[in-house]
Amino acid sequence: MPYPADRDRDRPWVMRTYAGHSSAAASNELYRRNLAKGQTGLSVAFDLPTQTGYDPDDELARGEVGKVGVPVSHLGDMRQLFDGIPLGDANTSMTINATAMWLLALYVSVAEEQGADRATLAGTTQNDIIKEYLSRGTYVFPPGPSLRLITDVVAWTVANAPKWNPINICSYHLQEAGATPVQELAYALSTAIAVLDSVFDSGQVPQERRGEVVARISFFVNAGVRFVEEMCKMRAFVQLWDEITRDRYGITDPKHRRFRYGVQVNSLGLTEAQPENNVQRIVLEMLAVTLSRDARARAIQLPAWNEALGLPRPWDQQWALRMQQVLAYETDLLEYQDLFAGSHVVEAKVAELVAGARAEIDRVQAMGGAVAAVESGYMKSALVSSLAERRRRVESGEDVVVGVNRFATTEPSPLQAEGANAIEQVDPAVERHAVEAIREWRAGRDDALVRSTLDRLRAAAGTDENLVEATIACAKAGVTTGEWASALRETFGEYRAPTGVSAASASGESDAGIGRVRERVRAVGEELGERLRILVGKPGLDGHSNGAEQVAVRARDVGFEVVYQGIRLTPAQIVAAAVQEDVHVVGLSVLSGSHLEVVPAVVDGLRAAGAGDVPVVVGGIVPPDDAAKLRERGIARVFTPKDYELTQIMDEIVTVVREARGL
């Protein structure tokens, strides 16, 4: 029976668009336009320097400023970002992790300047560092201090900003990194256990307020195109979270135990080939998290059809928002009780997922919990292996991807007609302006006040004092993002997470050609009198390492000696490693849009080091015009997401080595 429309119709979820680029002023204009189109919550994308604690004029920020999000370097930027948007009335999600405390401090400071009370602020800081070690790579500090920062934010918000979600535990990125539904459930819930254990063990929250802590823990999940399985996964999340919070933590109020989650559907599954097919993928994936009322998302943001090509335009983001609005306001979805209650098929699938997740959670807990499973490399290796298996199924045709490995015949797309600009392009001048602006900001500050607040922060970091108030003091004094992070780096140190490549299981014979390529690698090595060596490098701040890891695993499988040092390397460091290891080819992976800056810097560095004969190949999200420019700069090959068959890529890299050595 449908619910009476005037009584029990389910309320629509918060509708967001993940947005931000170029500058605070440009992003503010975009946010205000999106709100005028009916968006009901803001979702802020920060650029990589902001996410990893660097100012725009830092060497590692070169080519990254304003590319995948908005640069926010200080209080002035945050003021501009939310100019004309009353933060006391807003619901703002900020995708920020390692520097979450800092961005929250800036947000609180601007809200107070606007006259808003801290207790009225509503929104979310993502603040899940565990998945950064496993997937996105925007971590800064080691796991222990990182968990301390999360703990302090959780405890502070419960006491001071009770409407704020201090952490958004992300299974989303685990799926992007290869997680099966069972791994996604288990590793996300293991992260939640680690956070709650840390908060409760810290002594910062009285026993009687533990339910309030649990009630503010939110999740950010992924929904793939297997939407029946994905819907069952969400019902499994609801069941497991209720069990964990009741049995492990003794939370008695069912409202406190409710599984609260937001969604962005699967960007990894979007294709460069026939990208118009991404529209129906996005809609089907949205159904996975909306069909079941008992496990329905409370906030949704959808990617745009062209995210596999580059940065979406405002029109593309509008299209994604309209998908949500049609489902919520035109269909009868919200008028019914749960559609799957009593379904034997759904109950059996949920039970299977719950049992598998319980077993994997127990395995992680037996290792000492999520942090220990990160430090040992266990979870990372498991994800790299799962992603290798997924790629094997796609390459073999066992898993069909329409327009890629089947039904690839296509008509020309009017969405990508000649002369059309199918993606948003960030003006290269953005970075120069940001560098000039931050130097001007530093020149206009009270230096003594900046020094004293940073000294206070360093001193507090060496104790068990909650660091949020010291961080807010830094924000109000005019400290920059890089300065705040640098002060904590001095105390906490830095960290390089396990890559998971060496321990990952081999991908197997994914196609008939792998043996032939292995023989080519061996033969060319014999001609040269040494085993072929490839350096796989991640220049700049782009931490999306899944592709680089899969290239490294497949290169090892076909017989290359692989040099892979992980993420966040300067071009100079990559050049030094290439020369020291005497490699035959360098492969660079860049997905952040910084390819025109960081890739030529590696090529120029090799020439300056006397290794100009070492060929360089590039893989990533590279528009055709940019690919042509890279080839003009001496890049031997450019591979993009449409080049999904790794064994063929390996074969082409062998050809590149032969050409470079005159064989």
Q: How would you characterize the overall build of this protein?
A:
It contains 25 helices and 15 strands. It is of the alpha/beta class and 663 residues long. The protein folds into two domains: 14-406, Methylmalonyl-CoA mutase (TIM Barrel); 512-661, Rossmann fold (3-Layer(aba) Sandwich), CATH 3.40.50.280. The strands form three sheets. It has a five-stranded parallel sheet with strand order 1-10-9-8-7. Strand 2 (18-19), helix 1 (24-36) and strand 3 form a beta-alpha-beta unit. The termini are far apart. Mean pLDDT is 90; it is low at 1-6. This is Protein meaA. Keywords: Cobalamin, Cobalt, Isomerase, Metal-binding. Heterodimer of an alpha and a beta chain. Its cofactor is adenosylcob(III)alamin. Residues 531-660 form the B12-binding domain.
CATH homologous superfamily assignment of the largest domain: Methylmalonyl-CoA mutase
Instruction: State the CATH architecture of the largest domain.
Output: Alpha-Beta Barrel
Query: Mean pLDDT across all residues, rounded?
Result: 90
- Beginning-to-end CA distance, first to last residue: 74 Å
**Number of E strands:** 15
CATH top level of the largest domain is Alpha Beta
